[in-house]
Design brief:
Elements lengths: L3 E3 L14 E3 L2 H13 L8 H10 L2 E6 L4 E3 L7 E7 L1 E7 L6 E7 L2 E2 L15 E4 L3 E7 H10 L1 H21 L8 H10 L9 E4 L2 H8 L3 H13 L4 E3 L2 E4 L2 H6 L2
Antiparallel strand pairs: 1-2, 3-10, 4-9, 5-8, 5-10, 6-7, 6-9, 7-11, 11-13, 12-13
């Protein structure tokens, strides 16, 4: 069985129409099998299913060095892209660019599958490699075919998209303590994708005060208290949170 794949290294660095195809070696095929098996999209599929998928699907692979952009906000989401190796940073900014939140994601990770269909089919965040990253992309036609042929794949995709939608809806209805601390936590919680891991929030003190309905003095005092407790650090419009779950536990 032979599989042809797009062997380009980061199409952003060269001709996007380049087509350097190569046949997978047995070792490369085994490695691909293991990467698919670890992905939430292919979770639950049998060995025979995965072998069939590898033999019938054209995958596009890209490699990114640290600090290279993988996807930018506004890029068309024409393919379903999976991070299969490495760690990336996801940055989401306010419409007026007055503040942003950065989070980390590790492989295996599916990049915004909720943007693959629907009203707005473009990325809403910037994705940048933190370490050397490898991605795998699947065309929309192949995603539709896999969804038709493999019900487990279809259920996995629907489950991932549904989870994103449910989390977004839940965030809008969360309540927090009606004090400065609670309002800061509420603002942070409503602007992150997952309540764990490190976060970097770029926002001026005056804007954070405006968003929370508090005075700049109260915001400064509370951030200093949290910094003294080792829960975050801040300077010159940058709030760094080493562990968001720890911040939530001690709030």
């Amino acid at each position: 069985m032979a599989l042809e794949v797009d062997g380009r290294k980061n199409p952003r660095q060269g001709d996007e129409e380049a087509d350097c195809r190569q046949t997978l070696t047995p070792y490369a095929m085994l490695n691909l099998y293991e990467k698919l098996q670890a992905s939430p999209l292919f979770n639950g599929l049998t060995s025979d299913n995965l072998t069939q998928i590898i033999g019938q699907t054209r995958f596009s692979f890209s490699k990114y060095e640290p600090h290279q952009i993988i996807k930018k906000e506004g890029d068309a989401c024409r393919e379903l892209t999976l991070l299969i190796n490495g760690t990336l940073t996801r940055k989401t900014a306010a419409d007026d660019r007055s503040y942003s939140v950065e989070e980390t994601e590790e492989a295996p990770y599916v990049m915004q599958p909720e943007r693959f269909f629907g009203l707005t089919q473009s990325y809403s965040s910037d994705f940048t490699a933190m370490t050397v990253c490898d991605t795998l992309s699947i065309s929309k036609d192949d995603v539709m075919r896999l969804s038709d042929e493999f019900i487990i794949f279809r259920l996995n995709l629907v489950g991932i998209v549904s989870t994103v939608a449910q989390k977004a809806q839940r965030n809008a209805w969360r309540t927090f303590k009606d004090d400065t601390h609670g309002r800061i936590i509420g603002f942070l919680r409503s602007h992150i994708m997952k309540p764990s891991g490190p976060k970097t929030v770029r926002i001026k003190m005056t804007r954070l005060a405006s968003e929370t309905g508090e005075s700049r003095l109260k915001i400064s005092e509370e951030l200093n208290r949290l910094q003294d407790n080792g829960l975050l650090s801040f300077s010159r419009g940058i709030i760094t949170i080493p562990s968001f779950e720890k911040l939530m536990r001690e709030s």
